[in-house]
């Protein structure tokens, strides 16, 4: 053995000797928090109670890896803190605290490791939303308040997500930074949303906090019914008052029959029990209803469980016969057998320990049985007394005299046992909580403390059992004399020991972490002496802290603890004032808000009755912020607190915390119950403490009074886990379903969502240099109501502050008026505009109403007898003045009859109402549209200067100068109906529309609603953005941001019909579709772009779930098939002689799906990716095996494009086959189609070629799709060639509207192909031209269009023609390409002149039936349809547009109900507009199917158009259509008085009879003189 080996052996023996000699470690106590959090300054406190210096190494380990470690030599005595900074990005794992002790020379003493609990929560997050419930298309405004554990503002980044009811991410914001701890964001909801509870998720590191918002679809009815009931009620109140009223959007009260019904539902049941029904009449305002609770059924008397009452009201308007209903639900605070009042101690369970000479701090709460606050008057009329029953250590027992603690006279009432804080007594009637200190009698072993509340309606009592907890080795007792400390003040504590100790240590713990550790030298060795000490309150101790004191005596540890809340917020006064003095008319108000200098101030508003009173937890309050910080506590449920809810919702939920003494009977329990872990050789090991079957493992278990254990989750969960139910004693009543109840207890109304006015005071002051007070003028909403204005702020110096109580503000003006009427009408129709004048002053007022004259409309004059003709009414121009009396607090209605005098266009009607109380100016916009069935024509021409410098194009307008046909009864078109617009752009995609304007209506001039339509709008925005990027014409980031925001809105619309299995459906309750699901994925994949994800983020879950679902529809041979419901997909529909062979069926769908799989395989992982790759391989083999035998050009084109994308070796041969299918039209332009697609007709006059509008041809949409795929393949194969240039020219001739081609799918594919072509061709670099557009018939049309740079290329010009006939000259000079389009329309009233398809596809009949009552206020429209072609057997997805009379409406929710009732076997959806209802079908079968729908009069309209039209067409093949014309003579003959559209009609309910009621007294003449004087003064200011 060599020397080195001898040395190693000697060292090992020496180490062994050291270890053996050190078997007894020195006396030490190591205390640390049990919980570890990311970014936390984790503190380890060490007390060394031995006479030597020990070197301590403290380490935090995660799964055996050291995260943080520190070493410090600690002397004897005192307590030392070792801080360890936890990494901010620490993740979940197996965490341990390791303590190693050694001598300063390195000799090892001991090693100990204990497990820690990882909690991701490191900051307090509170989310405020502008309201609790939102409707589709509404903007969700929200703020995120983030505070650190020391109450300072969080200044780092966070991620924010909007998640729908299915858990899919709708919108996300990454790395959002706060301003003074506040981030303010907004999100606009889609047009149609997925109903349910959505979430706002905030993620900071691994912490995720959620805020609920309820999102719904809602459609405004003609009027709404409101029912007002409180949120909660006490069953013993006797009578419950409710209000019911109907109201129009103008705030006009509805008159009509009212049917009321009351029903009941027990909380443990789901069905409603009808109690009674009543009928009454609502005349002028709300109807008061008294609900006698004493008459509720006998069954209720015998039940303990609570119940809900539902008051439902249905009202029918007596003028037009429209009906609507509403309801409200109120919840009882208890069952009839339960007491509505209760008293409880705020402590953990019913059995608590106490130490010798230790005062016991207890709080007594008096409240309703559901936890609501009792009225102060009831408490003031009550007495509260405390009785103590004591048992001495010798077994004897005695009762102390009862002590009355409320009310109390401190000069006469004294007690040595009980003391009460005078401040608590003063606030007791308001808070219902009183804190008292009980001093146990000497030598007492147990105390039963009972509290008795004596009220006029009975006595209520509760008790608590206190048990002496002593240790034979010694005890210390800790209590506080400062029970309500504040930040920057001192809290005083007192410690008493029954053994002589020289010193003791104390720890201050807040949020389960040690924030302070110190030691106190007592200076006395005498037992039973009290030592006082003080602790300075710092922000990191708030909002509550625990102080744990311990001492070492004779080799054992003694400990005790106290819990104290800290007043940490509102350290600076915040005030908010609504200043009306600067605008006495009430149109604007100045918000004056004050806070600390440099604070971030946030203000919000809510409608008091319909939003604020819901109290659904959307607003920020002091309690919400406090609870967010208190939730850091490990035993949050067990804290002494009181939560108060307002029964009527007039105040927010309030939570208060109260002081208490510690509940630990042993040192182990004391440390454990305060969230601490202890490592000490003075305490038994954990394994030793688990040997007893009756012992409970802290902190996961707690002891029952009757023996046994229960878990933290079992505390106050409503289910007794202990034999004596001690785990359910002294619990708060906090129903978990409160959110669902509060957000569903009211029927839906426009005021509940408050989309128009609710955010008027959502204001933010972000400046950091203001002086603490701000003046912010805002416009007051026109609606008259009461509003609740709240505000909070965060200061960098003093932290969070909120208004003590919100401010109530009324937007009621002395005089207000609302004007409403149809937004559209047809030429020549007579309209009654509805004016509602409100006088909210208490006295009667004379109001002057002025209808301002205009050359664009006239008013109707009616004779005294009210007789007037429908089509030859007497018209009057100029101003019209009307004087009316309005009683105080009442309203009057005037129907103002007008007739537009323009042929078509926008007309503005101005009305002014004025009185002594103020004035109201109103403007109504009316769009006048042509009569008859509208025929549309479109011409698209390319100014092609690629190979020449000059070109002239003549575009024919197929409309004659006059509609009159000599010697004929019919006319070419209706007078005044022709319209024509000329658009010009340098973009191949067509005119560049603003992102908000990109829709199927603006681009394809048709209506849509399904998933495929929203996908089209989404894709068009994406391809427009991509086109702008590849052509480098995107100017700045604003347009990109707006387009992505619009795409994000449409993304939410699409996901409405994304099912949980991964499939997409086109309609609600429709079967899923493989074709549609793949099409969605193809379009979504084009939107996945890293630079866009800050606005538009496509949730990867969608790709995973959808691809998993799609691959299930692949056959073993590799072909993809559609679901069983659909006979064929839009890819399989072909017209013409070339049919798809049976063996080729499914090739197009397979290629379509393969393209989706290929585009999305990079967005999935794991088994899904494996399945996708395998599916692509099988699909590739299938396509390659079928490629050589394909005949149909469309099938070949999509298959070739799929083969190219997946890198097939057969791409080239298939490409050659595709080129062989190329066709040429008469203009020499190439395209692919199974049938001939003729070029637009050329008409020659004077040797000039006039290009006529293109007419629909069978196979148009499929030809565009096939040619788009072919263009993509040719660009990939050959790049730019003459053929590709000509294909682009052919595509442009196929446009049937300014912004699109034929239908949705072909338009999107063409946009993709043209974008790729633009990237290859780089036309932007060579385009520079001047184009002049003139019209010989219209001298106003003479425009010179210049394209000089990239900016000009993206600009679109639109010219409106005044004289629509003749032709257009387009003269171009320069180089490049430009697009000129004519969009024309005219109305016809002859069936022979309606638009006709190339081949007949549908049959359609329309019939109308009119109600006999109320002059045809109800019109029932019968629609019958059928498909008449032999191939295919049924149509594809179809759309039916039916014109409805002006002033009539159909509520979309009512139309949806018709669909759910199955009125048509394939009818899936509906969309309603003014003048039109649009119905959507899966398909139109070959046999006749009819359905009825009824439209109801909303506004009085007379002399209605004689003819209206209906249009039925295929959604994916617009060339398949039928247009019909139908007659409505019964409506045409109605006069303005027959529809009650004028205030001058004597037999209408709103006839203005004021003149006959007025006496021309001096006062009357004086009022008129004053009004005329005011009118002259304000004439110039009426309409600026």
Describe what you observe in this structure.
This protein is an alpha+beta fold and 1584 residues long. A hairpin with a 2-residue loop joins β81 and β82. The longest helix has 22 residues, at 1166-1187. The protein is globular and about 125 Å long. The N and C termini lie far apart (111 Å). It comes from Nesidiocoris tenuis.
Please describe the biggest sheet, giving its number of strands, its sense, and whether it closes into a barrel: 9 strands, mixed
Strand count: 86
Distance between the termini: 111 Å
Helix content: 10-25%
Q: Could you outline the blueprint of secondary structure elements for this entry?
A:
Blueprint: H1 3-21, E1 28-33, E2 35-36, E3 41-48, E4 54-62, E5 65-74, E6 80-85, E7 95-102, E8 108-118, E9 124-129, E10 133-135, E11 139-147, E12 157-163, E13 169-177, E14 182-188, E15 196-204, E16 207-216, E17 224-228, E18 232-233, E19 239-247, E20 256-266, E21 273-282, E22 287-292, H2 298-301, E23 307-317, E24 323-332, E25 341-345, E26 351-354, E27 360-368, H3 376-380, E28 383-392, E29 397-399, E30 403-406, E31 418-420, H4 422-431, E32 433-438, E33 444-455, E34 458-468, E35 476-480, E36 490-497, E37 503-510, E38 513-521, E39 530-536, E40 544-553, E41 556-565, E42 575-579, E43 588-594, E44 600-607, H5 622-630, E45 641-644, E46 654-657, E47 660-661, H6 667-673, E48 676-680, H7 686-689, E49 701-703, E50 709-711, H8 738-744, H9 750-753, E51 763-765, E52 773-779, E53 786-795, E54 799-802, E55 807-810, E56 815-820, E57 824-826, E58 830-839, E59 845-851, E60 857-861, E61 874-876, E62 880-886, E63 890-900, E64 905-915, E65 918-929, E66 933-945, E67 950-956, E68 979-985, H10 1000-1004, H11 1011-1030, H12 1038-1055, ...
Parallel strand pairs: 2-8, 10-16, 18-24, 26-34, 57-65, 67-72
Antiparallel strand pairs: 1-3, 1-48, 3-6, 4-5, 4-7, 7-8, 9-11, 11-14, 12-13, 12-15, 15-16, 17-19, 19-22, 20-21, 20-23, 23-24, 25-27, 27-32, 28-29, 28-30, 28-33, 31-32, 33-34, 35-36, 36-39, 37-38, 37-40, 40-41, 41-47, 42-43, 43-52, 44-51, 44-53, 45-46, 49-50, 53-54, 53-55, 56-58, 58-63, 58-84, ...
Helix pairs in contact: 11-12, 11-13, 11-21, 13-14, 13-15, 15-16, 15-17, 16-17, 17-18, 17-19, 18-19, 19-20, 19-21
